Structure formats: structure tokens, C-alpha cells
Amino acid sequence: MKHIQGTARSQTLLLPECVDDYVGPDNVVRFIEAFVDSLDLTTTGFERTLPKATGRPGYNPSDLLKLYIYGYLNRVRSSRRLELETHRNLEVIWLMRQLRPDFKTIADFRRENKTSFRKVFREFVVLCRSLDLFGRELIAVDGTRLKAVNSRERNFTKAKLAKALAESDERLNRYLKQLDDADKDNTTPSAGVDNLDEKIAAIKERRARLEQHRADLEASGEDQISLTDPDARAMHSSSRIGIGYNIQIAVDTKHKLIAEQQVHNKVSDLGLLTETANAARENLGVDHIDVVADRGYYKIEDIENCEAAGVTPYVPKPMRGSAVKNGFFTKEQFQYDADADVLTCPVGQKLEPKYKGKVRDNGTNIYVNRQACKACELRARCTNAAFRKVTRYANEAILDRMAARLSAKPEVLDQRRESVEHPFGSIKQWMGQKDFLTRRIENVRGEFSLTALAYNIRRALTLVGVDGLIQAIRA
Which positions ≥6 away from 200 have C-beta within 8 Å? Predict the structure, then answer.
């Protein structure tokens, strides 16, 4: 039995007469064409939307935007690879109408229009709203870290610079001592330390660079400096990213669509909840919305700002502090009476404020009961000091209200995991984006806007299909 045979390459074929015949009615490029053509690129902020009267004609920004959306949908982000696709990919040839911009033109378009991609992302959010793909009741906020174009070796903190300078000094002193010993004995240095003069010169040159980095770091007022991408920062070691950016997204729990996305170079998530959640609320066009986040966002100022912005937060309290570390009664086991302004400890004793009628400069007060602690049989389970001190914020009622909400709706924490982890998993695994291609935070923000847009398009295509999206555009 023979294998299946192919057609001879010299065989004449009756191929379709036009490129359009190769692209089916449900092909995603037909939606990309309709979506981009529906946008007003001038108000969106794209450059060169109006051609000049003189000079060499340029490419229409809408064509290059279509190319980028297609590329990110198909895991092709490199400008060189996108150029290659315009020569060999029939879908791209159809979408670009056989235009073949070079990689430099493609890369320049992404760099010059970095802030406009965010507006395109929001335009697609509006389109999804018209299709009722957002529940607009609960969003989940979380962050992840993606690698920047900067290695660990080209990132320095004050401690890292001090260590590197100390190591350089130690090596320099060792080499100089070997030269001195050789001069005293009127001998040549041992074979293991050949070219000492060159090595000493190299160390001095490196030390001068490190000193310059330290001066630049002190002048910047930052806690670290990156040489390749000055905006990138060293992330927590637990993230396994090294040098990168902090990506924040707000995901609507109905269909796991991204309602808002932001890029920061802050290492921690603290303080980012209000900014992300309130922007998502505005994108979804509602006056009020609930938001759930993990313990990394637990900050009283942020929780208070959320409530003031029309966002009701659900953030579990992190189990941290000396009481938790030592296995003592936790602060949550002390019941607060707002009317009497006292705390009741686990054995029923009252702790009164140390500073009655006022709070300290940091907005807190301390509650104590020295006499009760002295005679308490459970003091060993409460403190290793003479008496227990419990610190409470003046506005801690905000945290008490949130704790009560979480007790009433504990299922929102499961909804958070089910919703917000899906986009991150898809972006990192299916889309293959674990790092950025561009440098500087504004360029990175534009790049991730395209990533989030591609994720949302892929989700919407799964939910309503190409024809459903095109009909929504035309409605």
C-alpha cells in the first residue's frame, strides 16, 4: 500500500481568482477590519491619520493597527516577524490588502502611538458592554509581574552597589599586595596572577562605573537604578521575574473579560486598588461596583478611598504582626465597642485608650489594661510583656465594615481566584507573553494594552463569534 501522495509542484491549478476567496466569512480578520474601520483614529490620538499634501505617502495608521491586533491575537509581537507575515500569510495579505511595510515602520508605529492603544482597548470594552458581556456588579483585581528588557546584572540598589564596591576593593587590594610582594622579593608575580596590571586597570575602571551608578542613584532619589530600561524595577524574589513591571488588571467576573489594565513599576500592590478599581468602574459605566482583591491590597487608606469613589472593597486581612508570629491572641479576638471606645479581650476584660479624646500623629491609639493583665491567668497566651497593647486606627471602622461584608459573602474570594487568574494564565501560557519587547514604562503600557485587547477579543469571539461582533459594530 502506498502513502498518500502530494500534487506535483509543476502542476497547473485552478486557484480562486481573488484573495478574498481564501478568507472565510467567519475569519477573525473580517472582525479586525470592521472594528478598526469603525474607530475614529484622529480622536483616539493616532498620529499621521491625515496624509500630508506633499512628500512621500505614508501608511494609513488603521492598516498598521490592524496588523498589530492580528499579530497579538496570533502570538506574533515582533515587528520583524510581523513584516514576514505580510509576505507569506494569506490572512495578513487579505487584511493589509497586500501592503508590506518594513519592520522599522511597524516598530515605529507602536512606539509613536503607545498612548493610543489604551484608548482602543477601552473602545472594545464599550463594544462588549453593548453586547452585555460584562456583569458590571463585581470585579476582581490582581497583579502579576512580567519581565522587562533589563537583566539583573544591570540593576543596582544601594546595598548591591556597596557590596560590589567592597568586592572590587578587596580584589584590588589583593592584586596590589601581590605586586608589592613581588617588588620586595625582586621577583615576577606567580603564574596564577598573570597580567596584573591589566586586571588592576579593569577593576579600577569597573569601580569608577559603580561610583557613577551610585551618584546617579542618589541624585534620582529612587531606591534602585536600571541601566537598560531605566523605568524597570527589581521585583520580589518570590515572583521569579527579576527585573520587570507590575501589571494590574480588573476582571469582570461574569465572563472573565478585562475591564481595566495598568502597568506600574511599584514592587508592591499596596496602594493600587483604588486607582485600578475606580478606572474599571468608569470603563464599565456604572456609579457603583464591588471589588475583591487578595491580601496584598490590604491598606486602610486605599480601602477608605475605594468607598469614597463608589467602589465597595472585599479584601481579606493578612495574618501578620508580632502576635501572629508568636502565637498570641490576635487583634481580631479583641471586640471593639464604638459607643464606649473600649476593647474587650478574650477573657472579658476592658482595654481603654491610652490617649483619651485624641489620636497620635500616625492616626492610631493604643488600648491597654495594665491591672487586668497583671492578674490574668492567660497572659502567657496574650503577650510576653507586662501587659498587652492593642493598636487601633481612628478610622478602623472602615476595616470592621469590610470584615463584616466578607463574613456575609465569603464566596467572593473564590470568585476572585476563578476570574482574575484566567487572564494571567492565558496571557502567559497561551499568548506566550512572559516578558516585554519594549523599554520605558510608557512603551510597555502601550504594549500591554495590545495584549489585554487581544485577550478580550479572543474571549468575545468565543462568546459571540465573529458575526456577532460585526453585527454589534454595525448596530
Answer: 172, 175, 176, 179
Instruction: Write down the residue that cell numbers 621577583 correspond to.
Output: 187
Residue 272, domain CATH = 3.30.420
**Rounded Cα gap, residues 47 and 36, in angstroms:** 15
What is the model's pLDDT at position 186?
62
> How far from each other are the two terminal CA atoms of the chain, in whole angstroms?
57
Backbone φ, ψ for residue 390 (5° rounding) = -120, 125
Q: Are residues 308 and 430 in the same domain?
A: yes
Q: Measure the CA angle with vertex 450, ends 72 and 441; round to 5°.
A: 125
Residues 6 or more apart whose Cβ sits within 8 Å of residue 341: 352, 353
C-alpha grid cell for residue 118? 489604551
Residue 7 lies in a domain: no
Size of the chain in residues:
475
Residues 174/167, Cβ–Cβ less than 8 Å: no
**Torsion sign across C-alpha atoms 155, 159, 160, 165:** positive
Across the chain, which has 475 residues, the per-10-residue mean pLDDT values are 78 79 91 94 83 78 95 94 94 93 94 93 95 94 92 87 85 78 62 66 85 85 88 81 92 95 92 94 95 92 92 89 83 85 88 78 83 87 88 85 91 91 90 90 95 96 94 90
Query: How many Cα atoms sit within 13 Å of 458 on the Cβ side?
Result: 21
Q: Which of 461, 465, 459 is nearest to 254 (CA)?
A: 459
Same domain, 30 and 103: yes
For residue 130, what pLDDT is reported?
A: 94
b/e map 165-202, b = 16+ CB within 10 Å: beebeebbeebeebeeeeeeeeeebeeeeeebeeebee
Nearest to 291 by CA among 259, 313, 316, 318: 313
Q: How far is CA 99 from the centre of its chain?
A: 34
Q: How many CB atoms lie within 10 A of CB 156?
A: 22
User: Is the domain of 219 the same as that of 364?
Assistant: no
